[in-house]
């Protein structure tokens, strides 16, 4: 099943009620929220859409320090809506390891696993067995990604990464990744390097391949390379079997080199085709493995900061009009 990220950092976006109707019209089977908004969770009640909800970064340390706060969060945001709203994932924090510039950032990173543990324990104590708890991390956690077999996490993250992997592995949850071939391709172009082609980044079925010199595994697209770099980095810390999920991936349709509706449509449609294939394709290092995937994003969000592309990742414009067509339910 392919999911969609429903972010709301935009002016004059369609209402939550209209947004849920749009998701249903698109046959979206999963949606990821960047909070645990009660209105949206109520609107999703009785709908055949699985939901990922998020504990914001500024809530992490309080929950880590106080079981009562964890119990209260679970009661208010999960128990109050479950099972009529099909909550299936709780994401604790968002890209917590990407910013470690202040004492508060470092404290949140240290508190991440304790917070995940408290939330998971409360959910389990309530007898709920079908909710996975994890945290989404960005690819800037990597020291090296190429070739995939040589990949590793940044050394300064090891004190945080090892306990996270241990807990995720022990609870059979997912290692959630925000993974963007567009950004890797764009950075490659900006550096005037030509070893990543646009075809390779767009998951185009062409004759271009890359063979990892250490493993002999053959790669036909950049996304697989990036995913397997994380697989090998985890293995270097002693975790060979932690499952992957993609919490964010997509392609911008405006605002920078290679960002246009045709490329965005091609990437996302190729992504859906790959991730919904039966039998599952997986990656060269993890053949056949199902990888839950959420496309970023539903809407263009004009209140996001950063480069111009940041405001143009939506499959729909801020008023809900399609930018390009994506068949979310395709199987191939």
Detailed description of the structure:
Helices cover 36% and strands 16% of the residues. The chain is an alpha/beta fold and 332 residues long. The strands form 3 sheets. A 9-stranded parallel sheet has the order 5-4-3-2-1-13-12-9-6. Strands 7-8 form a two-stranded antiparallel sheet. A two-stranded antiparallel sheet has the order 10-11. A hairpin with a 6-residue loop joins β10 (210-211) and β11 (218-219). The longest helix has 23 residues, at 103-125. The chain is globular. The model has no long low-confidence stretch (mean pLDDT 94).
Describe the protein's topology.
Elements lengths: L1 E5 L9 H10 L4 E4 L4 H6 L6 E6 L1 H9 L1 H13 L6 E7 L10 H23 L6 E3 L1 E3 L3 E3 L7 E2 L4 H13 L3 E5 L2 H10 L7 H4 L8 E2 L6 E2 L2 H15 L6 E7 L11 H15 L17 E3 L37
Parallel strand pairs: 1-2, 1-13, 2-3, 3-4, 4-5, 6-9, 9-12, 12-13
Antiparallel strand pairs: 7-8, 10-11
Helix pairs in contact: 3-4, 3-5, 4-5, 5-6
